[in-house]
Protein: Cell shape-determining protein MreB
Organism: Marinococcus halophilus
Amino acid sequence: MALTEIGIDLGTANILVYTKEKGIILNEPSVVALHIDTKEVYAVGTEAKEMVGKTPANIIATRPMKEGVIADYDITSAMLSHIMKKIQKEAGFTLRKPKVVVCTPCDSTSVERRAIRDAVLGCGAKSVSLIEEPIAAALGAELPVDEPKANVIVDIGGGTTEVGIISYGGIVSSRAIRRGGDHMDESITQHVRKEYNMLIGERTAENIKMEIGSAIPDGEVRTMEIRGRDLVNGLPKTITLESPEIHRAITETLDQILETIRVTLEQCPPELSGDIVDQGIVLTGGGALLNDLQEWLSRQIVVPVHLASAPLEAVAIGTGKSLAMINSLQKASM
């Protein structure tokens, strides 16, 4: 079978590829392991993520995407080439100059958008269309974006959080901040370093966030035993963390996300405000899976808060769905 149309969610944390024939055919971390001197790629995706923090000095495992945009063009191109080959090999598809739709942050610059377009074209695409992430997320969450009503989407990714109010197929009001799940991980790492004189890796911090991280301070107290390196004597060390202290560590990022939602809602035309009271907002992205986030947000903004049925995959699904309506969406966003 020849693939002629694909949608790509080129995220900071994960890269997902969607086709209308088979849905999501690839979902892997946006990580590349390569040789420092020769730039030879050793692994991409899940295999490369397993290598983070465990490689010898001449090999690094890195993320070429930072805050939703390309930070290292060459490594991103190499990652995309490997991804395209993997699709053909594992899914049994033939890529014949496919039409590709890629999502981009709504605040990305023309230079950042051009970098994404060039990187995908360099991998053999016939054409590349870009769609703003809030619209892709809303489509993937099955919101009626082309109707004359307010659809509020909050996409909390690894490097960015984007809030959009969508009506008639276009963005009425939107804001994006370059803060997301990765910044929560960094805050947890800094907390452990400061309070316990212990160094932990990226993956440990992410596991802590998923296991005992919470958006509310007064929820159930959960504990987790973690291991790291003692900064005083350099030896391995084990400590036990509790959910309230992790909440305190990530509060700053949560407050910034809340402020972004509030500012976007304040910019909403009054005719659409009534819809938001009735319909509420929909959460997508990996960050939306943080424990108690829905409850915390509904307390703060006093409107219903819903979680998309597939929050991690919503943007990729929406990117794929937009293939059939890309012309009308681009006209609405002009």
